[in-house]
Each structure stands twice: as C-alpha cells, then as structure tokens.
Amino acid sequence: MDTTPSTLSQDNSSAVDEQHSVPRTLVLHLLPGVLVLVFFVAVAPLLWGFGLPPVMAIYLASVFVLIPFELGYLVYQARKTGASLGNIVLYRQPVPRGQFVLLVVALFVGGSVIGTLLTPVDFLLKENVFFWLPGWLDVTNGLYEDMARYSTVAMLITWVFGLIVNVIVAPVVEEMYFRGYLLPRISHLGAWAPLLNTVLFSLYHFFSPFQNVGRILTLLPVVYAAWWKRSMYVSIAVHVLFNLTASVVALLLILGIFGDLPG
Q: 52-97 pLDDT, tens per residue?
C-alpha cells in the first residue's frame, strides 16, 4: 500500500523526478552541521574569553556558515537547472487558514509538552554521557544555567542577536532547506522519509548531541505534518514558535538573575 499523500500541487509533484541517493542524502543533511561545528569549536573559546556565552558562537555560525550554505545551495541548484527558487523549494502547498492555525497550535502545544517531559532525559545524557564537554563547548552554559557568570550587557547582546538570527531568519532557511528541498527528494521512501529527515536534522546539531532524544521526538510530528500536508509553512510556523518560546524563557531567566544582582 502506498503511504505517500496524494494531494500534490503541480510544483510539488516534480519532487519525485529527482530523488537523492543515500550517500547524497547523508551528506546534504549533515554537512552544514559539520561546518557549523567547526566554526563553533574555533570561535566559542574566543567568545568565552570575552565574556560571551557559547551559544553566541552558534548564532554567529548561523550568520556566517549555516544561512550562506543552505540558502546558497538552494540558489546554486536553481541557477544550475535554470529554474526559479520556487521550483527548487517544494512542499509549498497552501493549507486552509483555519486548518493551518489548528494544526500549528496543536503541534506547538504537543511538541512543547513532549519537550518539557523529555528535558530530564537530555540533562541525564549531558551529565552521564557528555560530561566531558568543556564549559566553552556547552551551549546551555549561560543560556539556561550558570548565567551569573556573564555580565548583563553580554547576556542582552546575546539574547537580542539570538532573537533576530535564531528565532526569525535561521528557522525559515532551515525549513526551506530541510523540508522544502531535502524532504521531497527522499519521498520514494514513503512514510519513512519524515523519520529519516527528522533524525538527520537532529543529528546535524552536532554542537548539542545530548538533546537528540528530546529534539527528535519533539520535531517528528511537525515533520510528518509538513510531509502530510506537503507544506513547509506548517513546519516554519512551529519551528519559529519553538525557538521564540525558548528565547522568551531565556529572557525571563536573565531578568530573574538581574533582579538578584546588587543594585
């Protein structure tokens, strides 16, 4: 029985014409993450020395590595084939407004609950499996813990920069690349395609391996929804909401620490 959804637009139906091999799938999913990791390892200790938390290196990597690579690759493919970016980035099927809102809200709430319940698992993995990570390689250092180590100015600069890059720009580019470009090109795998796409997308976050369990289980329903509806707009909306929520939580923690500081 064919488990592939049948509601395809004319643009989206072209996805079956170009299917990626397993090696190409692995390389295109993971290579951006490898490049981000290299940048992160090179820059994080420098920022640590200047009193900035490690996550700032991830935000900078998004600007100088992730976004140029992923968006640049899409533009390159469009020019190489003489097509528009819209013909390269697929899964742009419109979803009725009411259904879209309900779907996004359900995925966001469900994902938030799953992520919250699995947070202790992430911390257990961090403490028992990845305990060897130095402080300057721990993205949670200064983001959700050990925030008192950093100055008010450093935390505010990091937060504002992250709001722009990690909440607005990077999620859109990532969804275009992973759900709009890569996912349709493994559609021959049927219902296994979203699972593979989700697992590889989580693994590509090489800088936070201890979060893989929570990240996979949180994102899996979102990716399946984007695949089912043939709409990356669903995953873009939920991805932005996830990152926005994390940003708000970080700000509340910062404000709480500020309140405890003298003066």
A: 999 999 999 999 999 999 999 999 999 998 999 999 999 999 999 9
Residue 247: C-alpha distances to residues 115, 120, 244 (Å) = 15, 19, 5
Calpha distance 166→55 (Å, rounded): 10
Q: What tens digit of pLDDT does each residue of 144-161 get?
A: 777 888 998 899 999 999
CA distance 94 to 195: 23
Cα 151 from Cα 52, distance rounded (Å): 8
What are the φ/ψ torsions at residue 32 (nearest 5 degrees)?
-60, -35
CA atoms within 13 A on the CB side of 192: 3
Give me the average pLDDT of each 10-residue run along the chain (263 residues): 43 62 97 98 94 95 98 96 93 97 98 95 94 88 80 92 96 98 97 98 96 97 98 98 94 69 34
Cα separation of the two ends of the chain: 67
Q: Give, as one character, the DSSP assignment of residue 89.
A: S
What tokens appear for 102 in the block?
Answer: 């309900």
pTM of the model: 0.90
Residue (of 94, 98, 89) closest to 174 by Cα position: 89
- Annotate 185-218 with b (16+ C-beta within 10 A) or e (fewer): bbbebeeebbebbbbbbbbbbebbebbbebbbbb
Per-domain residue ranges of the chain: 13-258
Q: Which two three-digit tokens encode residue 244?
A: 């926005």
Exposure of 255 in the CB half-sphere (CA atoms within 13 A)? 6
Instruction: Tell me the C-alpha distance between 148 and 258, whole Å.
Output: 9
Q: Which amino acid would we find at residue 26? A: L
